[in-house]
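Discussion board: Methods & Data

I've been asked by a reviewer to show the raw model output for two of the constructs in my manuscript, not just the figures. I'm not sure how much to include, so I'm pasting the format here to get opinions. Each protein appears as its amino acid sequence followed by a line of discrete structure tokens. Is this the kind of thing reviewers expect to see in a supplement, or should I convert it first? Here is construct A:
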Amino acid sequence: LAVIDAAILFALLFCRRVWGNGRALLLLLLCLLFTPYILYAPIFYTDSMSMLFVTLPLYLLSLYKGQEKPWARLGLGAATGVLLAFGTKVKGSVTVLLVALVLYALFNLSWKRLLGLLLAVLIPFGAFTVFFDWQVRSRGIIDPASAYQHQFPTEYWLYMGLQGDGGFSKDDFDYMYGLEDVDQRREAARAGIAQRLREYGLAGVAEHLTKKATYTFGDGTCFIWVQLRRQPLYEGRIGRLSQEAQPFYRAQDAYQALLLVCILLALVKGLLSAEGLDWAALLAVSLFGLALFLMMWETRSRYLLNFTPVMLLLMGDGLSWAAGFLDRRG
């Protein structure tokens, strides 16, 4: 709960700095209406833990853009890079925010500011990643022989993402786990990917991705209806909602539909704007990158949770633009 609250706090600070107090107040209301933030409070997992590593870097970047002192910019950039690197270790999807940042900087900053930002962020990002991996190896936290025997390769998640609705498949897991080592799993996954793509064909892949997108973005509960059914360490009021929360689920699905419509409005506003790329463009590129990642990877709606502050920020942008548009039309 503390991590979720902290993530929301930095999203609000980012919103206030970029768009003002009115938009921050709107975002607070949208967050209060987003029931997964309450229902995920008793669940300790990477989906919610990594939220902070999305909103805090965004806030630091907003400070960076308005900062004129070189050493202050260097510190903010380095902190952003380290936070993104650590967040990537917690949840790999945080990487898309780094990619979105680079693309945003390319089109929105002077070459001096661009070079300074990239060096300030990317060098600490790479240094922390190398240091973290070295510490894991040198301290013997993971035994190399055991890792070679039990590790699942990246191709496995792409292979699983090509079946059914793209969610977790116990059959795929059992098949891969039954193989001897990571090399065999990699070879089997690559062969399986090729076979499934051949079986789908171009039209089949398009149909599969449509089903996958619906499965991922159509569930407004962020998969909480499954998470709350798992055996809790401590029984609490929120945990007992697993059998009683159907009204919450239906209301949140309706809220999700509104959220997606407002995000679409924000995208339309961005395309029609003559002011160039703004902060909403960075958020939109981040969300597009996440969607692209999940369309290739094994997916489920809870994988959206760490980027829901980004989605709600875009929702606020879309609502504000729609309200302004209707007001201008009289």
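Construct B, same format:
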Amino acid sequence: YSQRAFFDSDGFGRSTNLFEGGVPMGGGVHLGAFYRYDYLSQQRQVGGAACGASSAITDPVLTNLSRRICDSDGIVRAQGGGLRVSVEPNPSVLFQAELATLRFDTGRSGVQASAELQYRPGQGRVLSFSVARRDGIYDMNTIASLFTGVIGDHALISYEQPIGDRWRAWVAGGVSRYSRGLGGESLANTQRRFSARMDYKLNEHIRAGYFVRVTGFSRFAATYFSPSFYGVYGFTYDVNYPITPELSFILLGDLGWGQISRYDIPAVNVFEAFLYPALRWRFRSDLALDFGYRYGRGRSSSFGSPTYTTGALELRLQSYFGERRPSPMAYQSGSDQ
């Protein structure tokens, strides 16, 4: 069982509850099934005005969208399930895939699918390629993107390489294609992403280094955050400290500087901070609990507010009745920082 609750200063909230089970089939093959229930909310009109308040938006297509959102109190529930498979024929290759359907109480159903192939030639090197299709709300974090039915198709490639005994480099690049809104509220859009990280092992428990993240959209969309350029670079750290043989403390964090350029608002310089403290408790060899909280702070939200904050509460309980399976892929990635 896992539960993840995300919320931000734009009034958006998302809670995902996931129940899953799997069976090892032998030969490195694991089959699993899962059920999920999502609760999504944001009582905001297009443009950011609260429901019931006056709005500067005059486009009839967007005002109609705002009316639909506010008539439902900005709340949508979703539930569904699917299947997951992982194949690890040898230590060098891991393939994972999942297929699911979600039905939203707006009356629309969506197919969610993802696949990832990892190649690990040894000496800590990892080459990964992944593709995914999911509803855009899990990346855009606005209720308007759900009501318009935007779907995202994603492709990402990454590579990790140790350099000597202490240095480690990681680089990733990808592209996302978002569909046109069902009612013409937004046009099809393309997002390009690039990330890189170089860190150094200070001791057995601490790594620290430098990161850079760059992204941008091909056009402006009124229903979600779509900057023409969003680049951040800075300092990153990773702490994994065993308190006891069963209990570990984890602390991840970033401090970054950069710039956001938007199609509708002048460019702004940004200072961003991200912090993730967590506990990992292994009650026994076949039972584990992970609990953590993510906090992020930056600038220029979906609605153009000068400060943007996010929070995410994560809980995961796992029990093993046989051979331990590979860690499942994240069902949703989303821009939670």
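Answer (T.O., handling editor elsewhere):
This is acceptable in a supplement if you add a one-line summary per construct. For B, something like: Residues 60-71 form the longest helix (12 residues).
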